Amino acid sequence: AKPTPPVVSGPGRRAEPGQSVSVTCTAGGFFPKDIGVKWLKDEAPISAQQPQITPGRTKSSYNVSSTVTMTLQRDDVRSQLVCEVQHPTLTAPLRGTYQLSKALRVPPSVCVVAEPPSPVEVNKTVNFTCHVKGFYPGDVAVTWLENGTEVKMENTSRLVETRQGLFELRSLVEVKATEEKNGSVFACRVVHDAQ
User: Are 66 and 36 in contact (CB under 8 A)?
Assistant: First the structure.
């Protein structure tokens, strides 16, 4: 009996570059017991743990499970894992795929730039720009704080995808430099991927 097409599943939660994740490939319903499982990352072979072969639902069938553990990198946002299952009943291997972006969280770098830089003349307008760079996935919430208190401001922000597949965002607010705002501190707060 031929094996079922392999199903590849990743971790339940995202991990950051430098952390390791496990990805598992399963297939079932095959006979005889001999089966081969190969892993590829972006078409290059990678090593995995010894496949676990267990009895299937019927007496004369088997299931296989193979797990690969790897350390994530920033550029894995574009990487794909392939699990190849080889069996005597198959003319060509069966393939299951997994996009590593599903397992990856890359936190942003954040900086605020004021234009013009301080000190500013009274009643002049100051533009504050919050640069949020190099993050994945693309869901991010930016709020502005004045002296630690959230301020509702008209802020224009746009999300762009970089060539590397990461995201960046600029959030801009305009503030009038009035007397009472002298000494005020403006900050932007970034919440990424509901963290």
Answer: no
